Amino acid sequence: MVVSQPERADRVFAALSDPTRRDILRRAAVGEPSVSALARHYAMSFAAVQKHVATLERAGLVAKRRRGREQLVSTRVEAVREARHELEALERLWRDRLARFGEVLEEEQR
């Protein structure tokens, strides 16, 4: 399935909007925990944690691989980097707009 850039960004930021998913992403960035190991950290069912992992996987933020009966989860650093670039582009846009707004105010005060 081909996912357009805006659709992918929507999926990434929707996935990152949940604190549990952000925590899973952090834990999977420093190791390769199994879904079972991740589930031990949260006061929710194993199925609920699986759904969070699936959401992160659909967004391209994590990858899963099988090792025996376990599913290991790892953070896709390049996807996190792409999200950071999206945010930096928005920051630049707003900084430029605010700078221009400041220039207009200065011109009017003269």
Automatic annotation (TrEMBL):
<feature type="domain" description="HTH arsR-type">
    <location>
        <begin position="1"/>
        <end position="95"/>
    </location>
</feature>
<dbReference type="InterPro" id="IPR011991">
    <property type="entry name" value="ArsR-like_HTH"/>
</dbReference>
<dbReference type="GO" id="GO:0003700">
    <property type="term" value="F:DNA-binding transcription factor activity"/>
</dbReference>
<protein>
    <submittedName>
        <fullName>ArsR family transcriptional regulator</fullName>
    </submittedName>
</protein>
<dbReference type="InterPro" id="IPR036390">
    <property type="entry name" value="WH_DNA-bd_sf"/>
</dbReference>
<dbReference type="InterPro" id="IPR001845">
    <property type="entry name" value="HTH_ArsR_DNA-bd_dom"/>
</dbReference>
<dbReference type="Pfam" id="PF12840">
    <property type="entry name" value="HTH_20"/>
</dbReference>
<dbReference type="InterPro" id="IPR036388">
    <property type="entry name" value="WH-like_DNA-bd_sf"/>
</dbReference>
